[in-house]
Specification:
Elements (H helix, E strand, L loop, with lengths): L2 H38 L2 E15 L2 E13 L6 E8 L2 E6 L6
Antiparallel strand pairs: 1-2, 2-3, 3-4
Length: about 100
């Protein structure tokens, strides 16, 4: 096995690991928003990742991710909120005023 092949294997493993890490963050966001909306008496309509970048959080490099989500307070109107995560930790949930 040459040095190039060894480096290529490490790069592929690293990319695969980061893919699974981003998927885990997305799953955490979905679970958090489902719980949050149930507690607030809201209906979660959709969730999408808006931005993902690498940054420092609590002294270590991790993914900084922003999600957009749609929710309804009365079942008729739809509103958009923003969820910000650092790694798998929720740091901000922003909702606009909505009808109940």
């Amino acid at each position: 096995m040459t040095l190039f092949e060894l480096v290529l294997i490490f790069v592929l493993v690293g990319v695969g690991w980061q893919f699974w890490r981003i998927r885990a963050i997305s799953e955490s966001a979905s679970e958090y928003l489902t719980r949050y909306c149930n507690q607030q008496g809201l209906q979660l309509i959709s969730l999408s990742r808006r931005k993902t970048r690498i940054g420092s959080y609590r002294g270590k490099l991790d993914w900084h991710t922003e999600f957009n989500f749609e929710f309804s307070g009365n079942g008729e109107d739809a509103y958009q909120g923003v969820l910000v995560m650092r790694g798998r930790h929720v740091t901000q949930t922003t909702l606009p005023p909505y009808r109940i």
